[in-house]
Design goal:
The structure is a single chain. The chain has a domain at about 20-65 and about 70-100. About 0% of the residues lie in helices and about 40% in strands. It has strands at about 20-25, 30-35, 40, 45-50, 60-65, 75-85, 90-95. Strands 2-1-5-6-7-4-3 form a seven-stranded antiparallel sheet, with no helix packed on it.
Length: about 110
Amino acid sequence: MLHEIKDRRGTPRAKLSQHFQLLPFDSRLSAETTSTRNLSRRGFYFETTLGHYFVGMYVRVTRNFSASDPVSRQEVGHVARVEKLKSGKFGVAISMLPDIGRAGIRWL
């Protein structure tokens, strides 16, 4: 018996590429600057060669990242899904957390 797989996404995805930087809360892990494969209002998906992402991991996200931009704004998200791709890379889905301000986050 075949079961239909239900898409659990709450918002539609757009196949847009947006440049961003990810900075894990764990300072022992390296930051990454890359581009999205798709995105929505609540999150985004990207591919990476780094294998240190895991479900539930918190990351700081800077969208439209540019090292020369002095007013970059960081947001907080968490890893919602990690999958191993046929290419050997990892597909990572990030779900953005509501903006509660810096006072509401304990920075590690």
